[in-house]
């Protein structure tokens, strides 16, 4: 993919369905009683991996082009897979599914691509083993392929060592199968789509402070309307905010407060952002995001906001590169465990474009404003890095050529087409 300098971004647009919510809709629908109908589902590679994995567990899932229809099997209706389940590039698929598979009285083997097989899995294996599941994997059980023989779980009290919605969700989902009460305490609130969706599927789950409790129960099929993904909208928000004369409306975006750190940070950086048509759907806040272009200034980003914008950090760094002054990002070590080591890949690739950026052990320091040169850069197969680099091209002196950009299909299949429609 090659991107070039543009004058401004203008128009009304939508982004594809929220990835986190799309995954969860398939998972909860599959273990619910009765049929579920999902609209706005993200047909990105990651969520399609989740569909394939549940088909492998005997769930009938059809896509009529408009809706995804899931014939729920009930809490104990999944079947032993005849073959290895493949989560592809998707950490959410592997980690959340492990929670469900830990509850099944059969053997499952789960693998993924090179990136996923190098991401840490002990973080889910450890609490799930404590609940009674047998889990093994490469590297002493720390890496996929994972082999899970589940069943006979008991509730535990678990304090998450890191703020991770994937680990939290794995334990919640296993808790739906466990005798007694499962209590999870998170150090800092992370995205709470699993908790909200368990409730929307008729389930009982409680939160007090940072503690969540859940018990064994049945769930019931629902209609789910997936909102637009704020993590996908973020690329356009930053581009429009940093480009004078821009005026963009991104319609029907998920605005769950555990996901809106990007809005808070861009406002702090001086961006002109407004929200309109605020509403709720299926227990999730939604609305339109309106961005006008202007000048940005540097910001200090760290602490409790980090889980609320973790996937947006690569594009926030692009905003910081264009902003006047220094931006400091700390407390973001988790970036090292994503599809690539996002601290390293962001620093290396943005440096190639002439951006002044320093690597820190838990984040980055960016000195702005920068004149972005053109050049050839690499996404290292990481969709968020590829899209962040593509946005750099809209501001750079020469064209930016992104190698390995096909990975964008993981979360945003029509990214390039969507971008072309709003640039002038
Ligand atoms: O639960 C989820 O849907 C996700 C949680 C986050 O990961 P962690 O739980 O590892 O922080 C995020 O980075 C990922 O893109 C999606
Ligand atoms: C980290 C991400 O996803 P996952 O962990 O599901 O691979 C992401 O989409 O940025």
UniProtKB/TrEMBL annotation:
EC number: 2.5.1.19
Principal location listed in the UniProt entry: cytoplasm
InterPro entries linked to this entry: Enolpyruvate_Tfrase_dom (IPR001986), Enolpyruvate_Tfrase_sf (IPR036968), EPSP_synthase (IPR006264), EPSP_synthase_CS (IPR023193), RNA3'P_cycl/enolpyr_Trfase_a/b (IPR013792)
Localization of this protein: Cytoplasm
Binding positions for 3-phosphoshikimate per the UniProt entry: 19-20, 24, 164, 166, 311, 338
Molecular function terms, GO-annotated: 3-phosphoshikimate 1-carboxyvinyltransferase activity
Catalytic residue list: 311
Top EC class of this enzyme: transferase
Involved pathway(s): Metabolic intermediate biosynthesis; chorismate biosynthesis; chorismate from D-erythrose 4-phosphate and phosphoenolpyruvate: step 6/7
Ranges for domain Enolpyruvate transferase: 6-419
Keywords attached to this entry: Amino-acid biosynthesis, Aromatic amino acid biosynthesis, Cytoplasm, Transferase
Catalysed reaction equations from the record: 3-phosphoshikimate + phosphoenolpyruvate = 5-O-(1-carboxyvinyl)-3-phosphoshikimate + phosphate
Pfam families associated with the record: EPSP_synthase
Binding of phosphoenolpyruvate, residues: 19, 91, 119, 166, 342, 384
Function: Catalyzes the transfer of the enolpyruvyl moiety of phosphoenolpyruvate (PEP) to the 5-hydroxyl of shikimate-3-phosphate (S3P) to produce enolpyruvyl shikimate-3-phosphate and inorganic phosphate.
Assembly and binders: Monomer.
Entry similarity comment: Belongs to the EPSP synthase family.
Record-given protein name: 3-phosphoshikimate 1-carboxyvinyltransferase
Native species: Alkaliphilus hydrothermalis
Gene name tied to this protein: aroA
